[in-house]
Amino acid sequence: MVQSVKPAFFATATSMNRKTRVIRFHRTGGPEVLQIDEIELPPLKNNEVLLKMDALAISRADILWREGDYVEDPILPAQIGYEGAGVVDSIGPKVKTIKPGDRVSTFPAASLVEYAAHGRK
Asked: What is the C-alpha separation between 34 and 26, in angstroms, rounded?
């Protein structure tokens, strides 16, 4: 059985370190609007997992999102990142089929407003 979970922040932080660096933008535009910001990690919700990312990808959706031409409007500052692969660091209380240490990849089926995959260690 596959459990549907929502990745929290696909960041390179761990559950021991409550801060992480993420790639985001404070205004729409070209690649020059991207910057690395340090943010506080919120607590995991029931069906969320925290991933330590090993690989990231930039897709057309990411570019349109950054430019402000995606199907939904970014809420600024907005994170970038829709696709990646890594290892589960920690899980929310209702996650049953995935455990810390599992290798996973993201599937772009969530809103970019709520979930983004790209961060930096």
From this structure: 8
CATH number assigned to the domain with residue range 6-120, chosen from the 4 options 3.90.180.10, 3.40.50.300, 3.40.190.10, 3.30.930.10: 3.90.180.10
**Integer Cα distance of 8 and 30 in angstroms:** 26
Q: In what order do the strands lie in the sheet with 103-105?
A: 6-11, 48-57, 83-91, 103-105
CA distance 53 to 13: 9
> Is residue 104 a contact partner of residue 84, using CB atoms and an 8 Å limit?
no
Structure confidence at residue 110 (pLDDT): 60
The alpha carbons of the chain give a radius of gyration, in whole angstroms, of: 14
- Residues 69, 82, 4, CA angle at the centre, nearest 5°? 125
- Angstrom distance (rounded) from CA 10 to CA 28: 21
Confidence of residue 117 (pLDDT cuts 50, 70, 90): low
Return the pLDDT at 112.
Answer: 63
